[in-house]
Amino acid sequence: MKPAPFEYFDPRTPQEAVGLLQQHGEDAKILAGGQSLVPLMNMRLVRPAVLVDINRIPALAYVRAVDHTLALGALTRLHEVATSAAVRTTLPLLAEAAALVGHLAIRHRGTVGGTVAHADPASEIPAVILALEGDLIARGPSGQRSIKARDFFVGLLSTALGPGELLTEVRIPTAPAGSGSAFVEVSRRDGDFALAGAAVLLGRGEGNRCTMARIALCGVGATALRVPEAERALEAQGITDQALRDAARQVERAVDPPGDVHASAEYRRHVAGVLVTRAAKEAWQRASQGTP
User: Fold this and answer.
1) pLDDT, tens digit, 9 for 90 and up, residues 219-229
2) How far apart are alpha carbons 167 and 140 in whole angstroms?
3) Number of domains the chain is built from
4) Does the residue 2 lie in any domain?
């Protein structure tokens, strides 16, 4: 298995990378971790005429805390996201999900920007960024712009990035005080793509009141998705058995999972509701313990 011929560039700055994307247009692809792109090229499912390798741009690899927000450079490796003390302390939901991406070797090469820009609906990281209401920073010929996570994932392997734009940073508000979170998924084997996954963030107030609920899913639609109806069920009723049943039903109604050789659509739909229930219980327990 070999890729079709292509022209290779290794820019040293984001500006140079953007210039190459602008020059070559739809013929160009960005190479970051390459854990998705390289296999597709080897099987000739994608045939870029130009490969723009951003691995020699150190300015795109960092984890920074700024004003109650954690900023991650697009080239930050998933292993660093999973093990960084800053991420584990301020955004444990992101660290927990990152540790489930593929295998260790994949996490050492895969990048946070690459997995977001690739927008695989089974990927854990887009769902977490949706649940945490992050912002995606893109740089293009017209300068820099910020895209809300809710507007970024527009379809199967499709995002709101425009022609010539490079994803440079992910910005996520740190978990609020009194909150708890959890990410759970089901896969056929450890390291496989998730058949379904759920990211839940809950806020716990006085009198065990649920002050905030955010629920996002992967593997059960054309994109990662939020389920506001399920969120409202938990916020209105609290974390009771009845509220969790109602939230699970709302999830099952909202998702439109694919069916394939790995799992039927009906199985994925049912599992999505089960996973939200499990994640919500774990997130609520962590909130009660003061552990985000």
Assistant:
1) 999 999 999 99
2) 9
3) 3
4) no
